[in-house]
Design goal:
CATH class of the largest domain: Alpha Beta
Helix content: 40-55%
Strand content: 5-15%
Order of helices and strands: EHEHHEHEHEHEEHEHHHHHH
Number of domains: 2
Shape: globular
Number of helices: 13
CATH superfamily of the largest domain: NAD(P)-binding Rossmann-like Domain
Radius of gyration: 21 Å
Number of strands: 8
Strand order of the largest sheet: 3-2-1-4-5-6-7-8
CATH architecture of the largest domain: 3-Layer(aba) Sandwich
Oligomer: single chain
């Protein structure tokens, strides 16, 4: 049975632990905080029970038994096939952690980081085992949103990417290969562009933040929940993608040029959003909405698993 070491037991680390436990892996979790570690078994079991109720996990009790908390980094990685680091989002922290991981983990173990923005070349260049390091960027929460972006450094061994793809695929994730390093990888770059335009449209008085959300939730988001943007435009013109571009390229180029502007997330636009937004921006409200979101995501994930595959 393969083994994964989870380094960092926050929201992302715990979610990764649940993903691999329900996928049949042995899971070893460590974290610098003793208090955090003590809560890991209970929180993972609760999450697995919730997933099982929707058919997203089987035998949650047995899956939870595959998770063990380890008091040290060395003990966590001792027999790991894959190491998933989910620590602080700074280059300095990644450099320190990966230096230790490269020293302590078995020589054939893959060392992966959950970082959202930092490319692997910034913290692995001087490691003796740099060829086994890459980014495996998930979306929060990874146990409900299966995409994982695999982005190697220039010196990452090509066969290692394929081995990593097999590991994540084996536990039900959807790995994609980011072929060259790009700050923020793919998902966050796409999200950043959309969010920048959303803030600009609200800040310029074009639309309310509520109607902006409806535009995505009840418009683009419905198609994007089961089709990508290229699949979408293929069906938006009789002749497919080239026909779509021939018809709409000039208008789209104008929209893109108009969207470029300074400080989309600056105080002016933020204040415009908040002045029209209902509900306080406090931790309790965010926690309640997060629980609601995760329930909706779980139901959507169950639906998508049951749906028929699209025709060729």
């Amino acid at each position: 049975m393969p083994t994964i070491a989870i380094i960092g037991a926050g929201l992302i680390g715990r979610a990764w632990a649940g993903v691999f436990a329900r996928g049949g892996w042995e899971v070893r979790v460590t974290d610098p905080s003793r208090d955090v570690l003590e809560s890991v078994p209970r929180l993972i079991r609760e999450s697995l029970d919730e997933q099982a109720a929707l058919g997203l996990a089987h035998e949650p009790a047995r899956a939870a038994e595959r998770v063990a908390v380890m008091p040290s980094l060395a003990e966590a990685v001792a027999h790991a096939d894959l190491v998933q680091e989910s620590g602080p989002e700074t280059v300095e922290a990644k450099q320190a952690i990966f230096s230790e991981l490269d020293r302590l983990a078995p020589p054939d173990a893959i060392l992966a980081s959950s970082t959202s923005f930092i490319v692997a070349s910034r913290f692995t260049e001087h490691l003796p085992g740099r060829a086994r390091c890459l980014i495996a960027h998930p979306v929060n929460p990874p146990h409900l949103v299966p995409i994982v972006e695999l982005c190697p450094a220039p010196w990452t061994a090509p066969d290692l990417v394929e081995r990593a793809r097999g590991y994540y695929d084996s536990v039900g994730q959807v790995p994609v290969h980011v072929r060259k390093e790009a700050f923020g990888f793919v998902l966050n770059r796409l999200q950043a562009v959309l969010m920048a335009e959303a803030f600009r449209l609200v800040g310029d008085g074009v639309v309310s933040p509520q109607d902006l959300d409806r535009t995505i939730r009840d418009g683009l988001g419905l198609r994007w929940s089961f089709m990508g943007p290229f699949e979408t435009i293929e069906l938006n013109a009789p002749g497919g993608i080239p026909d779509y571009c021939a018809r709409y390229a000039a208008s789209l180029a104008t929209l893109v040029a108009d969207a470029i502007g300074p400080e989309p997330f600056g105080s002016k636009n933020v204040e415009a959003v908040l002045s029209q937004w209902t509900g306080g921006q406090d931790g309790d409200r965010v926690a309640r909405l997060t629980e609601w979101r995760d329930g909706r995501l779980a139901a959507l994930a169950a639906h998508k698993r049951a749906a028929d595959k699209k025709p060729d």
